[in-house]
Amino acid sequence: MTDGSATILHCAGQVIRAMAANMNHTTVTTAAGRRAIELETRETTCRSDDQIVVAGAGGFIGGSVVKRLRDQGFTRIRAVDRKPVGDWYQRVDGVECVCADLSEKDNAIAAVRNAVEVYNFAADMGGMGFIERFRVECLRSVLINTQLIEAAWRAGVRRYFYSSSACVYNTDLQKDPAVRALKETDAYPAMAERGYGWEKLISEMFCQEYWAERGLETHIARFHNVYGPHGTWFGGREKAPAAICRKVIEAKDTGNGTIEIWGDGTQTRSFCYIDDCVTGIDKITHCDRLIATPINLGSSELVSINELVDIVEDIAGTKLKRTYNPDAPKGVAGRNSDNTFIKQVLGWEPSTPLRDGMRRTYEWIEQQYFDRKAGKKVVEDKW
Ligand SMILES: NC(=O)c1ccc[n+]([C@@H]2O[C@H](COP(=O)([O-])OP(=O)(O)OC[C@H]3O[C@@H](n4cnc5c(N)ncnc54)[C@H](O)[C@@H]3O)[C@@H](O)[C@H]2O)c1
To answer: Is 160 noted as a catalytic residue in this protein?
Structure first.
């Protein structure tokens, strides 16, 4: 992806990459030397006909990135997901769609063939209901990044993006709803979220070491609760914003007038609108200061779950009786994104007001809800 700046071509960079792809990588040169040459000589942006690969493209964020790439005019996009193509959340015309399990070595190698940039969004994940219950599945996502990054390095890929998570942060720092916002250095000393968070942390480390030792340019964003249209909204993997929208729509439709909230509703979070997330991915991937450097990609607008329900009730024009389920998965007590670093490096941060993003999300889920009720095909995670 590009910010639209002019493409700069340097033949030397291509030659070095071709050599690196064909030679025994440990003998090409010292990693530091190769890195310096690469940075000096590589192409700074992508050409519109460069091969771009999006892994996990059948899901929420991957599908939205494919759409943005296409809108930007890229003509060779390979979208890969283990779900059958008919079940992808978004299908974008003019994109090569491949159904493959990327935790398999041969599939990963085939996926990145001729790629200039690779974006990895593939993971077995969901909201708290999923990641607290299925820790083994979450941990096994380490196989995807392990195969994909090795294949990308061997293929001489220019840039590799990895989608990490705020779940890498030390849970000891998140025991109070009046939480201090988390800055990038708070991941260590490590006490990540069990299962999912540890997988993200070790995959981040893979990205950092592939750069340090082998010269593959990697970029890592730590997403904080991304929400918006085209995300999972029912079935068990949905996150709080989508789940609350669905519950409010259901309560209105059935007339039962109540909503169940997981936990006591005082837990706090920030939520990042999908358009901001996609813009941030582009900026982070093309910023030299952010090579192998994890960075928060989230909103700093902190709300409690009770306040989030207030917002959705306002949008829906209803008021519901609230019941609280203290035994349901609720995650850490408080979590917010400290955006000091991203503002300093990029002069930018996610800025869509929560109320605006939630309105667009609510309207999309409402449409999905009634389409489903009418027997039409909707976004559904059966996998
Ligand atoms: N959505 C968020 O709030 C959030 C927050 C933090 C981090 N993330 C990370 O961002 C990435 C994308 O998240 P999302 O919300 O789009 O999730 P998603 O579940 O909608 O998309 C993930 C996709 O990966 C695919 N996948 C899983 N295993 C695969 C495999 N072995 N091979 C190929 N494809 C496979 C799934 O089928 C799915 O379509 C994930 O890595 C996730 O952990 C998301």
So the answer is: no
